[in-house]
């Protein structure tokens, strides 16, 4: 594990209000960032908004506001959503900020001088919503955009181009030498077959047909075309090419910093092909991994406002708290695959994992300790085989969890913790504490309570990057002092003797699936 960690979400395009699909990627990044911080890794977590382009200019005009006013309003909504989702980002970059604009202009100047960019003429098939030119082969006979499948039209203009062939050998070398550069691995073949092997045209990096963008100093009728502007946010936010570039030095330039970009499939090729080439042109190091996450649909349909099937996380958070929402996103389907949101799945996921497994274990344990030991966690004395088995399983769970999280597999890591909790629930059935109490076997009974407490608190540590609201409540109901909340204590077995437990309200009340399904469906619009 590297000493530092820099993780980024895509910068979101603020042409529509944020919904649970946007929240998905940001939440997963947040979980990974919180996990790394918990492990003592110096972490920087960036998100933001991509605020230039024709589509924004058009939308602002439709609303009768300036493009800046338009993006200000939507960027604020994104920031509010991240607050509600308890996202722990260190910075929020907006591509209209001066700190970004100036550096992008410098980068463009550098590319011109470095002969990476030349002025030419672009002719091609243009998709207005995607702001992308496509080649004849890409649009096919039906002339549809390969990304969004909308009709494209013929267009041409004077434009600057980034030379794709110049750095292609570097890109191929990067892919060969770093087999985990694109994850999941299946995405690599897709990228090679769909784009690289078919031959790369030079990338158009300027536009003259609209002016809501970063102006090219050397030729002000051009604005910088979206990807050169957008992708560079990952370094401008760190202060690259600025007076204060301490964060850039600290994270980007340190070989002992792991750099991870999390992106959606629709923009993966820009991150996998163009971004490494831009970095090469700037003489900068490469990111370690570009992780392509899947898409979240609603009841099997793509979420979109025009279809009227968008779920906002806010009413869900208001009704259930933020943790069940974060839990659903992290746990329902494996990170990197496509997944589905539905009201039933949400209610069932909450019940199965949080109410029945984790929550139930906590409330049973707390009430047994209250009943049999006057609320004081007993000491582990002369543990038997069952206790030893759980100790071994706990250690195994911790190391599996760490390996999976480090490998960007949070869903599988959380599943390991759920299995440990399952075993602890079964351990109650096997040891039958109520019988031990009746028979006066106090030492055995105390051992069961000590082991259950340990399992709950180890699991709470492991789940804390996801369950940001509940973890502190669990610690408080077991009276865990700060020292023992630290991750370093996780390998101690049963260090919680003498803590005083307190019965509280159920952390995860069981949801009535029928009632909640109706409620959630009523708020999807
Ligand atoms: Zn398109």
Can you walk through the features of this model?
- The protein is an alpha/beta fold and 525 residues long.
- The protein folds into 2 domains: 290 residues, 3-Layer(aba) Sandwich (Rossmann fold), CATH 3.40.50; 145 residues, Isoleucyl-tRNA Synthetase, Domain 1 (Orthogonal Bundle).
- The strands form 4 sheets. It has a 6-stranded parallel beta sheet with strand order 3-2-1-11-12-7, with helices on both faces. It has a 4-stranded antiparallel beta sheet with strand order 5-4-6-8.
- Helix 1 links the parallel strand 1 and strand 2.
- Helix 14 crosses helix 16.
- The longest helix has 31 residues.
- The protein is elongated.
- The mean pLDDT is 94.
- Bound molecules: zinc ion.
- The site of zinc ion has 7 residues, from loops.
Fold blueprint:
Elements: E1 4-12, H1 20-38, E2 42-49, H2 54-63, H3 67-84, E3 91-94, H4 98-113, E4 117-127, E5 132-134, H5 136-139, E6 153-162, H6 164-177, E7 182-183, H7 186-196, E8 203-204, E9 206-207, E10 223-224, H8 226-231, H9 233-236, H10 246-252, E11 257-264, H11 268-282, E12 289-293, E13 296-298, H12 313-320, H13 322-331, E14 339-341, H14 343-373, H15 385-406, H16 410-431, H17 433-438, H18 442-463, H19 470-477, H20 482-485, H21 513-523
Parallel strand pairs: 1-2, 1-11, 2-3, 7-12, 11-12, 13-14
Antiparallel strand pairs: 4-5, 4-6, 6-8, 9-10
Helix pairs in contact: 2-3, 6-11, 12-13, 13-14, 14-16, 14-18, 14-21, 15-16, 15-18, 16-18
The structure holds zinc ion.
């Amino acid at each position: 594990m590297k000493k530092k960690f820099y993780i980024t979400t895509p910068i979101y395009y603020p042409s529509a209000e944020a919904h649970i699909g946007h929240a998905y990627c940001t939440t997963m990044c947040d979980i990974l960032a919180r996990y790394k911080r918990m492990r003592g890794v110096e972490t920087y977590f960036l998100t933001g908004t991509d605020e230039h382009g024709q589509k924004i200019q058009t939308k602002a005009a439709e609303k009768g506001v300036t493009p800046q006013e338009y993006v200000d309003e939507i960027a604020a909504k994104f920031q509010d959503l991240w607050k509600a989702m308890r996202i722990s980002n260190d910075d929020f970059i907006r591509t209209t900020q001066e700190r970004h604009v100036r550096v992008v202009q410098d980068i463009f100047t550098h590319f011109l001088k470095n002969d990476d960019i030349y002025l030419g003429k672009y002719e091609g098939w243009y998709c207005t919503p995607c702001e992308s030119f496509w080649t004849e082969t890409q649009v096919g006979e039906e002339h549809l955009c390969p990304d969004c499948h909308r009709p494209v039209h013929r267009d041409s203009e004077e434009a600057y181009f980034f030379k794709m062939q110049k750095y292609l050998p570097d890109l191929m070398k990067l892919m060969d030498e770093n087999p985990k550069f694109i994850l999941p691995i299946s995405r690599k073949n897709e990228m090679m077959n769909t784009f690289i092997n078919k031959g790369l045209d030079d990338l158009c990096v300027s536009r003259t047909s609209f002016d809501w963008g970063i102006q090219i100093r050397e030729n002000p009728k051009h604005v910088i075309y979206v990807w050169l502007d957008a992708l560079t946010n990952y370094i401008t936010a760190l202060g690259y090419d600025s007076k204060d570039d301490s964060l850039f030095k600290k994270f980007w330039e340190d070989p002992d910093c792991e750099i991870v970009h999390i992106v959606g499939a629709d923009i993966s090729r820009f991150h996998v092909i163009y971004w490494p080439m831009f970095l090469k042109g700037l003489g900068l190091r490469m990111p370690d991994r570009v992780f392509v996450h899947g898409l979240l649909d609603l009841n099997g349909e793509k979420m979109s406002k025009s279809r009227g099937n968008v779920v906002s996380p806010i009413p869900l958070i208001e009704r259930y708290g933020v943790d069940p929402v974060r839990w659903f996103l992290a746990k329902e389907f494996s990170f990197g695959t496509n997944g589905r949101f539905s009201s039933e799945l949400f209610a069932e996921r909450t019940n199965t994992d949080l109410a029945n497994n984790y929550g139930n274990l906590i409330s049973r344990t707390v009430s047994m300790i209250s009943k049999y030991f006057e609320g004081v966690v007993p000491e582990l004395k002369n543990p038997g085989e069952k206790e030893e088995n759980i100790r071994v399983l706990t250690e195994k769970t911790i190391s599996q969890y760490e390996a999976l999280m480090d490998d960007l597999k949070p869903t599988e890591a959380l599943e390991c913790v759920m299995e440990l909790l399952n075993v602890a629930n079964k351990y109650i059935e096997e040891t039958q504490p109520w019988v031990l109490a009746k028979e006066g076997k106090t030492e055995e009974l105390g051992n069961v309570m000590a082991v259950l407490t340990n399992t709950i608190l180890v699991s709470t540590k492991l789940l804390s990057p996801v369950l940001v609201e509940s973890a502190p409540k669990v610690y408080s109901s077991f009276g865990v002092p700060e020292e023992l909340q630290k991750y370093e204590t996780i390998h101690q077995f049963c260090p919680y003797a003498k803590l005083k437990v307190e019965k509280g309200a159920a952390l995860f009340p069981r949801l009535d699936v029928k009632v909640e399904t109706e409620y959630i469906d009523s708020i999807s619009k």
